[in-house]
Model the fold of this input.
Amino acid sequence: MRIVVPIKQVPDLVEELELSSDGTDVDREFLKFVVNEFDDHALEEALLVKEASDAEVVVVGFDEPDIDQALYTAIAKGADRAVKITGAGEGAIDSHARAAVLADWLAGQDADLVLTGVQAADDLDGQLVPLLAARMGLPHASVVVSVDAKEGVARVRQEFSGGASADLEVRLPAVFGVQASRQPPRYASITRIRQVMQAGGIEEAAAAPASGGPALTVRRLYPPEQTGHAEMLEGSPADVADRIIELVRAKGLLNN
Done:
């Protein structure tokens, strides 16, 4: 059984985001990128299936910032192959175009199962899973928290709002959007990642020209508006205490 795990690089939200000069994207030159959190869980779930069934795990990513590091890390964690798709364009690649390119590449991969993150922080025009499944004509399920695949059938647990869940049985091939793996994503040591990097092993595949269909066009982004500011209290402890009481009373939180 072959499991393909598409991963995506997203801006690290811990970093301060700066807009590009035309205001239509974030400034990617000095921005730090990390693997989409949900994709990391999808990889972990794929590795768990591999350990239970001796499957092959193939990780694929677009030629985006820091993708090589992410692919090497995936191999260090236990993936068998890593593929980088080149020529899909620069900057943000919308979900429709991403699904089109991935569907074209997957057509020649004989994949039994596609596991990817249920969503990404920068999804603007739809989640990848249903778009990819529709293009490939495959069944799909999202918000998956457990996958057990063997003998042409996958049994998955899908979560719903309110703490409800359902166990589904889906014939393979299929596409699943993973929200959480059965255990925390495993750690790959720096030493192991460096060993993988020295050995090489990232394959490259050129993106075929593909129309992603209707998608959003970003006309302008704006930073959040400042609605207030912090007041730094100075003076003696007694003065600061009096000022705090004054502010609390002004908010109507004290009656005397």
In short: The chain has one domain: 2-206. Helices lie at 37-53, 67-77, 95-106, 128-136, 190-199, 237-250.
